[in-house]
Amino acid sequence: xxxxxxxxDKEFPSKTKGAxxxxxxxDFDFEFPEGKLVGLLGPSGCGKSTTLNLISGLLRPTKGEIxxxxxxxxxxxxxxxxxxxxxxxxxLYPHLSxxxxxxxxxxxxxxxxxxxxxxxxKRAHDAAELVEISHLLDRKPASLSGGQQQRVAIARALVxxxxxxxxxxxxxxxxxxxxxxxxxxxxxxxxxxxVTTIFVTHDQDExxxxxxxxxxxxxxxxxxxxxxQEVYDNPKNLFVAKFLGIxxxxxxxxxxxxxxxxxxxxxxxxxxxxxxxxxxxxxxxxGLIPSEDGVLSAKFSSVEVMGRDISVIAxxxxxxxxxxxxxxxxxxxxxxxxxxxxxxxENKLFVFDSESGERLxxxxxxxxxxxxxxxxxxxxxxxxxxTK
Length: 388
Ligand code: ADP
Ligand code: MG
Prior knowledge:
Layout: E1 3-12, E2 22-32, E3 37-41, H1 48-56, E4 63-68, E5 71-72, E6 83-86, H2 98-107, H3 117-130, H4 146-158, E7 164-168, H5 176-193, E8 196-201, H6 204-210, E9 213-218, E10 221-226, H7 228-233, H8 238-243, E11 250-257, E12 260-263, E13 266-270, E14 277-283, E15 288-290, E16 296-306, E17 309-315, E18 323-328, E19 339-344, E20 349-353, E21 359-360, H9 364-373, H10 379-387
Parallel strand pairs: 3-8, 3-9, 6-7, 7-8
Antiparallel strand pairs: 1-2, 1-4, 4-5, 9-10, 11-12, 11-14, 12-13, 14-20, 15-19, 16-17, 16-19, 17-18, 20-21
Helix pairs in contact: 2-3, 2-4, 3-4
Adenosine-5'-diphosphate binds next to β2 and α1.
């Protein structure tokens, strides 16, 4: 079942008298595709839980509409929407066994949905098997690990065969190792059941690793939607570029001058843009490559060895923080422990408007023009000349 949000707003009245109301969600307009796992990703307070609660029916939108397939759910109460919910705190009943916790939602079914005792037990056992806790059914929640408790919560959410599974930071209470394991489990379960799933997290690594699609949010608004790799490789704005990626992207104050990108006095690369302007230049750590004839000079700070890779940490006056390059240990001999020069991988470099943060793209037609007028000599024309 697909979940459609049409221009949904959620406004909360302010708690203090006279202050402005809070727009927790602004113009959320997206169709969550059937049978996919979508990661809803953004910093704390950006409106993820509010969005999820609007879909579950725990909240009503201030404006806009919500559909499950073609059925208008905007004003349907939560218990009639057929959604399964899993929260950060597992919220299991402590006095009930695992089996009875899983059975609980089925025991409240009424009318045509009512099940026989045998049907209920079959469903509960199937759900327990799916999340691999069949051997724990007689235990009480207190005697289970965090990971096992979260599996029980997932089984309890799935036992009613929901149309939509909604998970709100389900891994946050688990330690690092269990978090990795459980997120793979969630992925497997989603693939097996093919239930439309929305997974809320502030952890970009988590969202990137298990989602078919990610929806990046900030301050109540959608910033970008796409396959994880697509969004990483093609961020639409500076917020998205900075939010995705560990270690984070390096950001420099730069300039477009005569169809070239400059950081300070150093020309980084050609960039046909037609107009001279101040910009933010962002380069992924894996796109800075120490090399003797590099285009960007920086002051060397330190080297961090992280097993397979080495992080070269440096300082540059055009960047407010430390800059970081990830190199394989093979490339590390080019680092002279004083200053360091980097060449730049062009597909790892992005240019943003310094005011709005929106991505600026080089104008391909300008490159062609430049070629005929032989102005600026962009790299692409050079390459073409060589192949002739
Ligand atoms: P997230 O889950 O991304 O951390 P939330 O959806 O919980 O963010 O909150 C988004 C914004 O809405 C925050 O500024 C939060 O303070 C505000 N908010 C959430 N719930 C309420 C509420 N019931 N009343 C007032 N403000 C709220
Ligand atoms: Mg939240």
